[in-house]
């Protein structure tokens, strides 16, 4: 269940009203405003397609606790439903970023190592081969 799916489709059944006399559908913002104005009371029943059954409005996280906040926060977000089995939702991005940063660090270290230590010896070898070649040419000329 996402916050987007919880943002729409709220129904209200006033305490003591006959079954089938629910009002709605309301958006989360409309339901929030109804709770703040007192039109929805904590003992009224509310329902959304993502709730298991009709629940008392007081059981909806953030509906009445947020109603006590200033009006500037009236655009409160719908309640977040916990992910399956109560496990916190994990982001896939952090493990990927850790691997990429590690790869960059290791690659940079290896590149720096070979840049500093690898070229000096190959340069010495080519110079040695060049001198040996000149000695051979001098011997043939003389």
Distance between the termini: 92 Å
* Total domain modules: 2
Low-confidence stretches: 69-74
Shape: rod-shaped
Overall pLDDT score:
73
Please work out how many helical segments DSSP would assign: 3
CATH top level of the largest domain is Alpha Beta
Helix content: 40-55%
Q: Widest sheet: strand order?
A: 2-1-3-4
Helix and strand composition category: alpha+beta
What's the order of the H and E elements?
HEEHEEH
Under the CATH scheme, the architecture of the largest domain is 2-Layer Sandwich
**Major beta-sheet overview:** 4 strands, antiparallel
Give keywords:
142 residues, alpha+beta, Dna Ligase, domain 1, 2 domains, four-stranded antiparallel sheet, 3 helices, 44% helix, 9% strand, rod-shaped
């Amino acid at each position: 269940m996402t916050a987007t799916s919880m943002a729409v489709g709220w129904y209200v059944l006033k305490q003591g009203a006959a079954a089938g006399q629910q009002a709605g559908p309301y958006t989360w913002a409309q339901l929030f405003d109804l709770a703040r104005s007192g039109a929805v009371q904590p003992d009224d029943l509310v329902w959304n397609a993502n709730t298991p059954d009709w629940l008392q409005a007081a059981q909806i996280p953030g509906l009445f606790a947020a109603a006590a906040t200033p009006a500037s926060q009236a655009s409160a977000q719908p309640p977040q439903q916990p992910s399956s089995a109560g496990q916190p939702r994990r982001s896939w991005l952090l493990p990927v970023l850790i691997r990429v940063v590690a790869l960059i660090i290791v690659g940079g270290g290896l590149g720096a190592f070979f840049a500093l230590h690898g070229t000096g010896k190959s340069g010495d070898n080519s110079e040695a081969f060049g001198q040996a070649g000149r000695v051979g040419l001098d011997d043939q000329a003389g």
